[in-house]
Amino acid sequence: MFSHLQAAPTDPILGLMAAYTQDTRPFKIDLGVGVYKDEAGNTPILACVKEAEARRGRNETTKTYIGMAGDPGFNAQIDQLSLGGARALVDQRVATAHTPGGTGALRVAADLIKRCRPEATVWMSDPTWGNHPAVFKAAGLAVHEYPYYDPATQSLRADAMFDAVAQVPAGDVVLLHACCHNPSGVDLAPEHWQRVAEMAQRQGFVPLVDMAYQGFSSDLDSDAYGVRLLADALPELIYTTSCSKNFGLYRERIGAVSVIAATAEQTTVAKSHLLSTIRNNYSMPPAHGALIVAEILDNAALKAQWLGELAAMRDRINSYRSLMVSRLRDAGVERDFGFIERQRGMFSFLGIAPEQIQRLREEFAIYMVGSSRANIAGLNQRNMDHFVSAMATVLRD
Ligand code: LMR
Predict the structure, then answer these.
(1) For residue 368, which of 31, 61, 171, 213 is within the disulfide window of CB 3.0 to 4.6 Å?
(2) Active-site residue flag, 210
(3) What is the pTM of this model?
């Protein structure tokens, strides 16, 4: 069974995380994996999560199976968070199942697409999150790219993107990032979402929106703008959500997959396939993370506390975007990094060469993904000087 195998390649993001952990240099900086870090460089448990966990410990009465769709209370709350007052919810055209993380949600979506339309191709942005192509290919689907990020202007290649999307045939799937595009930090503007909606309507492809960072760009509602617009405009939509980042529940693996079909009856049928896909895969999701999130969102005081903690994470990242730009400028770095301030979410491409990335890691213990994707949340007042002088050095030499 195993004797003929070669070792699988290390995951570019999780492998980097392991390498950073093993690095013993005290001045090391982790700009790699997409986890939020506070001013002290820690990824703390949110206070609202601590409280919700304590309540859950006191009030939980059973550990019996939760069912294939997971926790109904969580699912209803996630529907509200993602869709707000979207018509599809009122019309009972939304079926949601909670899943083991956002990646679990994507894999369930992929398996469902394969089941419904095995010949479908999934179109994804160039670049996209490193694991996106692998998840859809693992489900047996074909994957194609559409142009998205222009390294020369550090912005969206809108014309090229829409030229490519114009070629997507009926029945194919177009994967979009709701906000905080991973890895570029460049998001679609409202008029772009409108164009996607019109093209999907005209051409008959189905958008799949990955909303892994709701609340990390501007606020919960603005960050869900695209999902809500598509939900209002289209007969069919798939979207996935994650509570890893906005609730800081990374290791609890809690996310959700939602499908919208043309009618309530079609949604019931689609849901039966969604659940059967889940049953064939992992049977049902773990409960813990969902019950924490439901506890928070069901309780006005805990929800207000969460919104405050979420805003603090978002504001810290955005303020470090500005600080990084001004500190590099003050250090005499000639290259203009002003684009970092215009981008949103945890990530931006620094746009530096592979040798410079390698040098930052080997000489200065600064870790970022090989594409130059940097997690801005890894910066703080204590490591900023080291980061700025290392950048100035590798850019100068
Ligand atoms: C990232 O992009 O770094 C995160 O989403 C973590 C992961 O699983 O890749």
Answers:
(1) 31
(2) yes
(3) 0.97
